[in-house]
Specification:
Layout lengths: L2 H10 L6 H42 L2 E5 L11 E2 L3 H5 L6 E15 L4 E9 L5 H6 L1 E4 L12 E5 H6 L7 E6 L5 E11 L4 H4 L2 E5 H8 L5 E2 L1 E6 L5 H11 L4 E5 H4 L1 H39 L1 H9 L4 H36 L7 H4 L10 H18 L1 H4 L7 H6 L2
Helix pairs in contact: 1-12, 2-10, 2-12, 2-14, 10-12, 10-14, 12-14
Length: about 400
C-alpha cells in the first residue's frame, strides 16, 4: 500500500473525538446535502420543462406554418392544401408529422353565460393521442362519414365557467359577416393547466368550419409541424423555412407562447444561481476542513519534513484526505437524491398549485447525462479548491512545526 495513502487513511480513522473529526463529519454532511439538493433541483427542473413543453407541443406542434399575414388575429388566412410543402414534408429531415387545422373565433352561449373561444378545427391527420393525454372525461371529436360533426371538446376551465357537462348542448356564434351560429354538443373535456390553451381553445371538426365558411375540402388555415427532436427546434425551423411555399410563413412555438418559455428560462437561471451558491458553500467548507486538519497535524507535518518528505508528498496526504471527504459526501448525496426522486416519481407525494405551476404534483425527469455532468462539475470544482489549503504545507518550517502546540 502507498505510504501516503496509508497515512491519509490513518488520519481519517484517528481520534474520533478530535475537532478535525467533527469537522470532517460536518463537511461530509454539507456536501451530501448540497449534492442531493443540486440533483433533485435539476431533476425537478427537467420535469417541469418536459411536462410543460409536452403540453404545449401536443396541442400546437413545434412549428406552425400559416399564410403570410401582418394582421394580429386568432384566425389565419385560408389557403388550398395540399401545398408543395405538405406533399414533401415527410421527406424533410427532422420532421415527424404534419397536420392541418382551421381556427375560428366565436362566442359560446348558455342561458346565463357567454364565453369567447377559438374553435380549432381538426381533420383526419390530427394526432389524436396528443389530445387524449390531456382528456379528463368523455371522448375525442368523431370524424365519421357524415357531412360534419357538431361534437366539440372543451377545456375544464371553459366548461366550469359555462356550467357545461358531457353531452350538454351549447350555441356557438361565429364572428363573421353575416353572423352565423351552430348548436354544438360537448363530447369531451380536457385540461392542460396552461391558461393560454384552457382559457380559449376548444376542438371540433374541421369540416364544420369549412361548411360554415363555404370552403371546399382542400381549404385549411395552417399546418402544425411536429419534430422528432424538440431540442433541435432551430434546425427543424430552418428545414421548414427553406422548403415551404413562397406564400407561407413559419412560426416557432417558442415565439407563439413567449411568456411560457421566458418563465422556463427564468427558472433555468434561478437553478443555475442556486447551483453556483451550493458549490461555493461546499468549497468554503472543504477549505476550512483541510486547514483545520493541517493545523491539528502540524507536529506530524514537521516530523515528516524532518524525515525527508517533500512538500508535494505531504500535500498529497491532505489532498487525498479531502478528496475522500468529498467522494463520501457525494456518494451519500447521490443516494439521497435518488431516494427522494424515486419516491416522487413513482408515488407523487408533493402536490402543487395547478393554477400557478400548470400541474398537480412535482414532476421528475431522469436525465443521467445531467446527473453525471453535475457530479463531475462538483467534484472538479471542489477538488480544485483543495489545492489552496494544502499549499500552506510548503510554508511550515520543520523546527517550528515540531514545537507547535
Amino acid at each position: 500500500m502507498n505510504l501516503y495513502f496509508l497515512i491519509s487513511s490513518r488520519l481519517n480513522s484517528g481520534d474520533k473525538k478530535s475537532f478535525s473529526a467533527t469537522v470532517r463529519i460536518i463537511s461530509t454532511v454539507v456536501i451530501a446535502l448540497g449534492m442531493a439538493v443540486i440533483l433533485v433541483s435539476f431533476a425537478v427542473l427537467g420535469g417541469f420543462k418536459r411536462a410543460i413543453k409536452e403540453k404545449i407541443f401536443s396541442l400546437g406542434g413545434h412549428i406552425q406554418v400559416v399564410m403570410a399575414d401582418t394582421r394580429e388575429s386568432y384566425e389565419e388566412l385560408p389557403f388550398a392544401s395540399p401545398t408543395l410543402f405538405y406533399l414533401k414534408a415527410d421527406t424533410l429531415a427532422g420532421i415527424a408529422h404534419v397536420q392541418s387545422f382551421i381556427n375560428k373565433t366565436g362566442l359560446l352561449q348558455t342561458k346565463s353565460e357567454v364565453q369567447g373561444v377559438v374553435l380549432k378545427g381538426i381533420g383526419s391527420d390530427f394526432l389524436f393521442e396528443n389530445l387524449k393525454k390531456n382528456l379528463l372525461e368523455g371522448s375525442l371529436v368523431s370524424l365519421a362519414d357524415t357531412p360534419y360533426s357538431r361534437k366539440v371538446v372543451l377545456s375544464r376551465e371553459i366548461a366550469d365557467k359555462l356550467s357545461l357537462r358531457l353531452n350538454d348542448s351549447v350555441w356557438m356564434y361565429f364572428l363573421q359577416n353575416p353572423p352565423r351560429y351552430r348548436k354544438l354538443v360537448v363530447c369531451g373535456i380536457y385540461e392542460t393547466g396552461l391558461e393560454e390553451f384552457d382559457d380559449k381553445v376548444i376542438f371540433g371538426d374541421i369540416r364544420l368550419l369549412r361548411s360554415l365558411q363555404q370552403y371546399n375540402d382542400s381549404i385549411v388555415g395552417g399546418y402544425d409541424v411536429f419534430l422528432h427532436d424538440p431540442e433541435a427546434l432551430e434546425e427543424g425551423f430552418m428545414n421548414v423555412f427553406n422548403e415551404m411555399d413562397y406564400f407561407l410563413a413559419a412560426i416557432k412555438i417558442t415565439d407563439k407562447f413567449p411568456q411560457v418559455f421566458d418563465w422556463l428560462s427564468l427558472v433555468d437561471r434561478n437553478v443555475l444561481i442556486f447551483l453556483i451558491l451550493i458549490i461555493l458553500v461546499s468549497c468554503f467548507i472543504m477549505v476550512s476542513a483541510v486547514f483545520i486538519m493541517i493545523v491539528e497535524r502540524t507536529n506530524m507535518i514537521g516530523l515528516l519534513k524532518a524525515l525527508g518528505a517533500r512538500n508535494t508528498q505531504i500535500a498529497g496526504i491532505f489532498l487525498l484526505n479531502g478528496m475522500g471527504i468529498i467522494l463520501k459526501g457525494m456518494l451519500i448525496g447521490n443516494i439521497l437524491a435518488m431516494l427522494v426522486c424515486g419516491i416522487q416519481y413513482y408515488f407523487p407525494v408533493i402536490p402543487l398549485d395547478k393554477t400557478n405551476y400548470y400541474m398537480e404534483t412535482v414532476p421528475i425527469h431522469w436525465n443521467w447525462y445531467y446527473w453525471l455532468a453535475l457530479n463531475s462539475v462538483t467534484l472538479m470544482m471542489v477538488g480544485m479548491v483543495l489545492i489552496l489549503p494544502v499549499m500552506a504545507v510548503s510554508y511550515l518550517k520543520p523546527i517550528r512545526s515540531i514545537k507547535f502546540n
